[in-house]
Amino acid sequence: MAKTWNRLGLWAGLIMPALLIFAPESRGSEKLIWLLRDLAPLTVFDGPKKGQGMIDQLMPVLIASMPNYQHVILRVNKARAIQMLKDQPLACDPTLLWSAARANSITYSTPIIGLHSNVLAIRRENQPLLEPFIHDQTLDLLAMLKARTVKLGVIAQRSYGEWIDEQVSHGPQEQLFTHYGSDPLGSLLQMQSAGRVQAVLGYWPEIQSKASQVGLPKDALIFYPVKGAPLYQLIFIGCSDTAQGREAIHAINTVLANLGDNALNSSTAQWFAPGQAGEYPEPGPVVADPPTEH
What is the pLDDT of residues 39-58, one digit of tens each? Predict the structure, then answer.
């Protein structure tokens, strides 16, 4: 499996202050808006690993390699990012999963990297709630939702991968709490501690990083992969599906193709979950064809 990865993971206008990036700006250069949020292991805004995410490391390379653009970084939540990708002539998000539902409004790069799929996290003391739905150490997410015994916290407009998204969409919607805020996962983890939701979804490193930020002990949570979900998910850069966005994707793909095999190695090992290091895909641009549906 690892050998296939041998080359290069509030709704109403809530935007944190923009950071103009120091790429040389030429007269008449087009503005390219990069849409980011705190999403370990890809981007890390706070804590001891601040700036050490995989995309944190990639962004300066992309910006330096695309001097014809005026690069602007906006920190926005996922819901706002998805809306801006639809509304703006040239906006890009470097942390996206591909989904058929969004392929008509977003144009995607070649894959950047592969991550272990999103998992479900529950507080250790609430683990017995999941026992009826755990088979071979994986969680039957749809069965859990249909049983109506566990409230699941999710982030607005976020894709957790097509399989997980489908399970969530087919479950009773009253079992979901959808968060639109500026720090949705942090808020959901606090709600979990207060008993308002019992489970949350996310990448293992993302949840662990955010749990540390909100003061949870390292062993407070238990994680389960979702039954039926692929072991790995591909991360893409997605841009507005406009002439400007498609041109930017062409430039981005050229940069990705020219990156060395070890471009992201230094930032990857630190994000392994226990027991994953031996099976984690090798970092680097992924040798895979982009989705053919778009």
Answer: 999 999 988 889 999 999 99
